[in-house]
Amino acid sequence: MSLSIRLQHQLSDLALDLDFDAPSGVTVLFGRSGSGKTTVVNAVAGLLRPAAGRVAVDDWVLFDTGQGIWLPPHRRRLGYIFQEGRLFPHLTVRQNLNYGRWFAPRGARRESPDRVIEMLGIGHLLDRRPAMLSGGEKQRVAIGRALLASPRLILADEPLAALDDARKAEILPYFERLRDEVSVPILYVTHSAAEVARLATSVVALQAGRVVRHGPASEVLADPSVAPAGVRAVGAVLQVRVAAHHDDGLSELEAGGERLFLPRIPHRIGDELRIRIPAQEVILSSRRPEGLSALNVLSGQVDTIRAGEGPGAIVSVRTPAGMVLARVTRRSVAALGLRQGSPCYAVIKTVALAPQDVGGRVVAP
Fold this sequence. Notes:
By secondary structure, the chain is of the alpha+beta class.
């Protein structure tokens, strides 16, 4: 399924004017607060009526101002996942899930309740009420309720923002399964680079109500001008395969014939993954370094050097494993004599590869 969104609308402090198409999978709306992410979601949901525009999932048109089509929210067949689970407190988990099924239209393709419960790992929670659930468990139930409504599109508006790091780590794999195993497009709002790297099939970066970048996560996260946290969010996204698990607590990954080591991950040998390497965790050398504690040294060539307004620069290094980015000073660029095409080695500390930056099965953009 493909998603097509065209919107024009003037709010008091935001002029929304955007147009993009996205493939099936997870389309991430990415940008700073006030860039228009939630406004787009509200327009798609029917909570905001834009001045002009069109939204369609394949041939299912939610609205088209040019043709006078406007489906009310309750007829749009959307599953909405909020920052908080928003479960009915007086109902059990089972009853909350059945509430979603109650809204599924007759004749619609229905997800199997048993399959959804298994996929989300909530079988042991069915008789509990929301007050007895953790934040992560509530979100899993909310995902299940949205799925069982047989939606044609799922909206997820910063669904992990209210969770601590432990709960986020718990929930992210379920969104990865949702992306990989359910044939429903997902419009996902976040300002987290780690979530983008792990989940996105396609990324739409917004600034002041306009699309400034649209493409794979590896391209968007390499551009410091579009990341909500600026250069701190810049990083590389590599596709890797789990090659081995070692007795000293490290996992070995393979990418383009290169080897990378990181603290042990709960994935099987042969699994394909995405990993995000923050640019600030990479150092550069003009010759192969020796006598370092770092295990990950990738050889390559400088692709681009992007100087910032301050003393820093982002250097892109093309390696067999993929494009790696390093955040260094302009003084270091000059001292190393770096320029486009010059040989370079990217050094990555093993412990710098955090668990939240390691994603599940790769989905091609």
